[in-house]
Design goal:
about 350 residues, mainly alpha, two-stranded antiparallel sheet, 14 helices, 4 strands, about 45% helix, globular
Length: about 350
């Protein structure tokens, strides 16, 4: 299927002007929302760092959304990462091995080799089963996602050797009797349930995995709120909806599947109910909580949904690189703004 090219002009820092200036019919709600959030993040994370906020998730979303951003943006991130890895001598963390997984996912999205960053193999810790399991279920989930993203061999270690099958079995072992997963001994949670399903998705042909996935999907459907949202910890929030969207996209389930439409409310509608005019997302409807984290996770979900809509491999499947169907973001200097911007927003001119 030939993918449709699209060119969208985004003015850094003035996303609302962009969205109102788009030609009628030029983009659907998903495309418009994704473009707005991409521009917001390019403004607020102008120099990406290495970290779970303002770092890899932004770079990953921009890369997997196939946005055309200046090469200097990628170069800046890679330079920051290289310097950080050198400064810590390749030890990103001694207890949070998800640090390695997050960086490996991002480097894979950029077409870079995570086994040689400043001379260090950042995949190596993911071969140590007991070290990864120091974070419990979360560790196993993200190790598997990172290894599968580039179809990497599990690194060989001298200690407790991990295998893909060990990680799969660990995730299956931790599934609750009702079908959901929890981070600890508490009640099942939609976020970690969705993440577990993302990790298990490539293994569904195994009978036990297929059954676990079916139970997990049913649990999520049963726990979706009447307005299409999902609730976790402090109530309904954008991040929970975002993770469920990513799970369904990775499992190949349509976002408008009847199991996930409640009273006419879809998952995408629920997610977009948190988006603000500048492209950012609130954590909760009241605006409480970490907005930047909500924005970055929502952006990944929008990117995953966009890829599903275009028939592209999901957010975390990067074995083949697709070069067409890209978003083209053009950063327009203020002096070159079109007349429509100046008419609509004279205060910015």
């Amino acid at each position: 299927m030939k993918k449709r090219q699209r060119s969208v002009s985004l003015v850094m820092g003035f996303v609302l002007a962009l969205s109102l200036a788009l030609p009628v019919g030029a983009a659907n709600n998903l495309e418009t929302a994704a473009n707005q959030t991409a521009a917001y993040l390019l403004q607020t994370v102008s120099t990406p760092q290495t970290g779970d906020i303002g770092g890899e998730w932004v770079v990953l979303g921009l890369a997997r959304g196939e946005y055309s951003v200046p090469d200097s943006y990628w170069t800046a991130y890679l330079g920051v990462l290289d310097a950080h890895v050198k400064s810590v001598q390749g030890v990103l963390s001694t207890r949070k091995y998800t640090e390695y997984a997050r960086v490996a996912l991002t480097l894979t999205a950029l077409g870079k080799d995570p086994t040689n960053v400043a001379g260090y193999n950042l995949l190596a810790p993911l071969g140590e089963f007991s070290g990864v399991l120091g974070q419990g279920l979360n560790g196993a989930v993200w190790a598997l996602l990172a290894l599968d993203a580039g179809d990497y061999d599990v690194p060989k270690v001298s200690g407790d050797q991990a295998t893909r099958e060990r990680y799969v079995q660990e995730i299956l072992r931790r599934q609750g009797t009702a079908g959901g997963w929890s981070l600890g001994a508490g009640e099942p949670d939609p976020d970690i349930t969705a993440m577990a399903l993302q990790a298990l998705a490539p293994y569904q042909e195994q009978k036990a995995v297929g059954q676990a996935v079916a139970r997990g999907v049913a649990w999520l459907s049963d726990h979706q709120l009447p307005d299409g949202n999902f609730s976790s910890w402090d109530g309904a929030n954008a991040e929970s909806v975002a993770q469920v969207i990513l799970a369904l996209c990775r499992l190949g389930i349509d976002l408008e599947d009847s199991r996930f439409v409640k009273n006419g409310h879809t998952l995408l509608q629920a997610l977009l109910s948190y988006q603000q005019a500048d492209g950012s997302f609130r954590h909760t409807q009241s605006g409480d909580g970490q907005g930047q984290m909500a924005t970055e996770q929502a952006f990944l979900a929008l990117t995953g949904a966009w890829r599903a809509e275009k028939g592209l491999p999901d957010l975390y499947t990067m074995k083949k690189k697709e070069s067409d169907g890209a978003h083209n973001i053009v950063i327009v200097p203020k002096g070159e703004w079109p007349t429509s911007f100046k008419v609509l927003f004279p205060q910015l001119a």
